[in-house]
Amino acid sequence: MPNLIQRMAGYMGIGPWRSSPGPYSSPAMPTDEGWIPCAWPINFGQVAYDPIPGGVNSVVYACISLYARTIAQLPGQNKEELDNGGTRIIKNTGLARVLKKPNAYQTRSDFMFNLVFDLLGEGNAYALAQRNDRTEVSQLHLLNAKATVPMIAEDGSVFYSIGGNPMIDPLLDPAYNAGARWVVPARDVMHIRCRTPRHPLIGEPPVTASMIEQGIYNAATVNMNKFFGNQSKPSGVLQTKATLTAEQVKILRERWMEQTTGANIGGVPILTNELEWKATMMNAQDTQLIESLKLARQQIAACFGVPLALIDDMTGATWNNVEQLTLQWKAQGLAYYVNHIELAFDQLGEIELTDQYTEFDMTALDRPDFKTRIEALARATQGGIYSPNEARRTEGLPAAANGDEPRVQQQMVPLSYEIPEPAAAAAPPPPPADDTNDNNPPPDDAAAAASLEDGNILMRHKLRAKSDAVLRELRGAS
Asked: What tens digit of pLDDT does each residue of 86-138 get?
């Protein structure tokens, strides 16, 4: 326990920054327990200041959860641009390992799910980076978004006052004292923020643009809860002109409940003594309340850029256009936040000015849609974009023989391609000589061919001379 002098020094701002039971200096001072801000008036209960919030708005939670669940599915990769225009995945860097396993107690899905919730719910997401001996990021720890404060030094340097994570507090200081906080440079803090209208280092979540609609939705939901909890409307009433005693009313109610509730629900009761059943209908005020809830839901979802069909509200949607609404959300809503987070990882890994970059593989979203995925791979392979082995590797299949080269159909030619004119028919080669000596090999070059031709000429002269001699003998005999 700190002694009296240490406590007094802490209260006067001397020594390390420590958390205190309440923001004594200003309402912007963060606390880990959610104390009542000192800026609230004494009669905060009379002016609608509620120290116990009613929880997260269901529509807000559905919109944020949609982004968080989707981004948590995307595997992160550390890539590098090559000189030939292609890219390759790097697996031996600290950033690549952190993208796969951020820390020892969280999976990649846990880390990204909670990070996106902080980003869209609080407007800021913080993560503390631990580095190894090579100054590479070795682990990432999520910080409490409400208890982390950016600070600017006199020379313009940015620091962060952090604390409130029970998993890393003992790591930062083995002699950890409960409530201690630390100041770390911005280089070791990954800070992702939304819109920053008031301060460049403090973001505001999208929900601030729909505070009125959230108030309407919350008030209507609370009123409905109280109405159905304390003033439940019956589905109908039994009417009669007869005057009944209290005991008769009790017996009648018990018999009615026996025939229409519990195991006998849906039974057919028989009415006697001029009893008449009158069902209660929804009045105009109830209908108007439901329409107000629908309008508030639409406005809240619009602030997040989420179609109502993606949060299980089919108002204005059909089964034919849900796919187009999903593609629109991916292009206009999801793609921005994915790129926003990728750039934050680039800055943390100090690779934003190099050929390396972070990329979350959005093709993982096609994992449940086998048909669309296979058709896309088939078209990419037939069009020469992917080689067969690249397409097989995407599906986790082993490489095939002679499948590393992209292929295209043979009839695919450029527009500048010209069909060449047919060449003139060449003269037929001379008939081979009648050479009875099979041991003579065919001529291999021009000299051998010339020598063979000379031999053929000599042979023809000898045959002609022999034939002339035979003719002369025949003539002499005649």
From this structure: 889 999 899 999 999 999 999 999 999 999 999 998 899 999 998 888 888 99
pLDDT value of position 78:
93
Q: Specify the pLDDT at position 108.
A: 94
* DSSP β-ladder status, 189-193 and 195-199: unpaired
Distance CA 128, CA 131 (A): 10
CB 79, CB 90: distance < 8 Å: yes
**324 by DSSP, 3-state: which?**
helix
Q: Measuring CA to CA, which residue among 294, 280, 117 is closest to residue 221?
A: 294
3-state SS class at 449: helix
Identify whether the C-beta of residue 406 lies closer than 8 Å to the C-beta of residue 386. yes
pLDDT at 267: 65
Q: Phi-psi bin for 221: left (phi > 0), alpha (psi -120 to 50), beta? A: alpha
Q: How far apart are CA 219 and CA 226, in angstroms?
A: 11
| Secondary structure (3-state) at 415 | coil
What is d(CA 233, CA 91) in angstroms, rounded to the nearest whole number?
Answer: 63
Q: Residue 227 belongs to what H/E stretch?
A: helix 211-230
Q: Which residues contact 240 (CB under 8 A, 6 or more apart)?
A: 273, 274, 275, 276
Q: Is 12 helix (H, G, I), strand (E, B) or coil?
A: coil
Q: Which alpha helices (DSSP H) does 123-181 contain, by range?
A: 169-172
Work out the burial of residue 99: count CB atoms within 10 Å of its CB; fewer than 13 is exposed, 13-18 middle, 19 or more buried: buried
Q: What token pair was written down for 267?
A: 């039974």
Give pLDDT < 50 ranges for the chain: 1, 8-34, 54, 230-231
Tell me the C-alpha to C-alpha distance, in Å, between residue 377 and each of 86, 168, 381.
18, 44, 6
Q: For residues 445 and 452, what is the distance between their CA atoms, to the nearest angstrom?
A: 11
**How far apart, in whole angstroms, are the C-alpha atoms of residue 177 and residue 7?**
13
pTM of the model: 0.65
Neighbours of 24 (CB within 10 A): 9
Q: Which pLDDT value is given to residue 236?
A: 66
Q: What is the pLDDT of residues 364-374, one digit of tens each?
A: 888 888 888 88
Query: Can you tell me the distance from the alpha carbon of 29 to that of 18, in angstroms, rounded to the nearest whole number?
Result: 12
Residue 179: which residues within 8 A CB-CB, separation 6 or more? Answer: 18, 19, 163
Determine what percent of the chain falls in helix, strand and coil, rounding each to the nearest 5: 45, 15, 45
